[in-house]
Design brief:
This protein has 489 residues and is mainly alpha-helical. It has helices spanning 4-11, 22-25, 100-118, 123-136, 142-158, 163-168, 170-193, 198-215, 219-236, 239-256, 258-274, 278-295, 298-318, 321-338, 342-357, 362-365, 368-384, 388-404, 451-465, 476-488; strands at residues 57-58, 61-62, 414-418, 434-436, 442-447. The strands form two sheets. The protein has a three-stranded antiparallel β-sheet with strand order 3-5-4, covered by helices on one side. A two-stranded antiparallel ribbon has the order 1-2. A hairpin with a 2-residue loop joins strand 1 and strand 2. The longest helix has 24 residues, at 170-193. It starts with a helix and ends with a helix.
Length: 489
């Protein structure tokens, strides 16, 4: 391309005047003869020698013989043969030719952008960019990641349904075991591969041992994990985690040696009383009562009654009305289980009277499950006394309490018994036996029966209470039994 006037003459069919040095002095790489490329004003080839008979071609058209620039006559310059291929001049059409400056300014940014996108990035540049990006991201906390994964695996395992339903489906049972094993592996890696803070390590040890106790038969591993955790808590004075571990260790020891477990609990209870951790005194004594009732010998039942009365005395002295109500209800259950004699029934009614006298207390109103339990125990007393009329009346009271307390029942059946005493350790564990309830006060966690199972028990007791008039009452007793069986399925 040359000057705009030259371009205009070419378009109109007239050859432009020849300028010998114009293509050599220009810095635009688009200037020069057709078919040649010039860089920085210099020709790519030197002046070729004269060769007769050699006619180069351009786009399939033969070129004229070579002529030196000095011998060129502007008047006799031959016209290029592709001139005849141009369209004829039309007076009605205006042809606008852009200037070379405009083309350069518009084409250069485009060429730069093409160069930017087409130039390959070296591996060192990529690695440096990744290094800068990784330095800006926060570091990964693998301890927290593994603990979160463990909880997710365990939650997925527990979310598959009850163990009874899983046993019927063998494939789901294998999946359940895989999820639990993976969760345990994550916790084990955290304990063995990382240096944790004392409180975090104690928490992970407690969680790891509790899963071992609930889901496996590896009691030796659970015992060793808890023993090391108790030493750690003693060193750093983590009382609540220590009591939780000792509570779980007593359960682990009971699986192999019940008497050793009871003896171990005696020492733990003395230490809690010495430190005046009243909430934990309640929890540990309730644990020992439950373990003694599992042995079911007469001496063990008497020992359980002794611990229950000690709990009642401490609760009455400390003003813990909810704990006193629960202790009185459990005492009634122990008397009911021990014997069906008239003396035992009288002691049951005496303990129930103490529990019912406290039902209007604000602390007791927060645990409606205890009200249902007292009604169940009262109905069982009438059934043992073989008093049908009283049994029917107490059955109606029990059903009314079940219907009214269904919304306040916890899904897994746990109940939180509030403790007024605030002299426990400063930081109770979030998932321990003693924790803070929704109102910010200390509470003891009891594991009881879900509402659906209690409702099935109510159908069973109601069927027994109405069995004496089943035929005259439209087979009502049988219908209650069928409804209870249907709910179990």
């Amino acid at each position: 391309m040359g000057h705009p006037q030259d371009l205009m003459d070419t378009v109109h069919g007239m050859p432009p005047p020849y300028q010998p040095n114009s293509f050599r002095q220009s810095s635009d790489p688009t200037y020069g003869y057709p078919g040649y490329t010039n860089y920085n004003g210099a020709s790519l080839y030197q002046t070729p020698p004269q060769q007769p008979g050699y006619l180069p071609s351009h786009h399939g058209q033969p070129l004229p013989p070579y002529m030196a620039p000095a011998s060129v006559n502007h008047e006799t310059r031959p016209v290029l043969q592709y001139q005849n291929q141009l369209p004829p001049r039309s007076s009605g059409v205006a042809v606008v030719i852009p200037s070379p400056q405009t083309q350069r300014t518009t084409s250069m940014p485009m060429m730069a952008s093409q160069h930017k996108h087409n130039t390959p990035i070296s591996s060192s540049a990529k690695s440096s960019a990744l290094t800068r990006l990784s330095s800006q991201l926060p570091p990964v906390d693998y301890q927290l990641l593994l603990m979160s994964l463990a909880e997710d695996y365990l939650a997925a395992a527990y979310g598959q349904g009850s163990l009874k339903a899983l046993v019927d489906r063998e494939i789901d049972m294998r999946q359940y075991h895989k999820l639990v094993a993976t969760g345990l592996s994550c916790l084990e890696v955290v304990l063995k591969r990382f240096k944790l803070q004392p409180q975090m390590e104690a928490t992970v040890r407690l969680r790891y041992a509790s899963v071992l106790y609930d889901e496996t038969q590896n009691m030796r591993e659970a015992e060793q994990t808890l023993s090391e955790g108790i030493k750690l808590c003693d060193r750093y004075r983590l009382f609540d985690l220590k009591y939780n571990m000792e509570h779980l260790l007593a359960l682990v020891l009971f699986e192999g040696s019940p008497r050793a477990s009871l003896k171990f609990l005696d020492g733990v209870i003395k230490n809690a009383e010495a430190y005046k951790h009243t909430a934990w005194v309640y929890g540990l004594r309730f644990l020992k009562v439950s373990l003694l009732l599992k042995l079911s010998s007469h001496q063990d039942i008497l020992s359980a009654l002794t611990h229950i009365r000690n709990i009642s005395a401490i609760a009455e002295k400390s003003g813990d009305k909810a704990v006193l109500t629960v202790a009185s209800t459990v005492e009634a259950l122990i008397h009911l289980r021990g014997s069906s004699s008239a003396e035992s029934i009288e002691q049951v009614q005496r303990a129930l009277a103490v529990a019912r006298s406290l039902q209007l207390d604000p602390q007791v109103a927060r645990i409606p499950q205890v009200v249902v339990l007292t009604n169940i125990v009262d109905l069982s007393c009438s059934l043992q006394q073989c008093d049908p009329s009283q049994a029917v009346n107490k059955m109606q009271v029990m059903h009314a309490s079940l219907e009214s307390q269904s919304d306040s029942w916890h899904p897994d059946g746990t109940l939180l018994v509030p403790v007024q005493s605030q002299d426990s350790s400063k930081n109770p564990g979030g998932n321990g036996i003693v924790r803070k309830d929704s109102q910010g006060s200390l509470a003891i966690i009891f594991r009881w029966t879900p509402w659906e199972d209690v409702y099935v028990l109510g159908f069973l007791l109601s069927s027994i209470a109405t069995a004496h008039k089943n035929t005259s009452d439209g087979l009502k007793s049988e219908q209650m039994l069928k409804e209870g069986i249907r709910r179990l399925d």
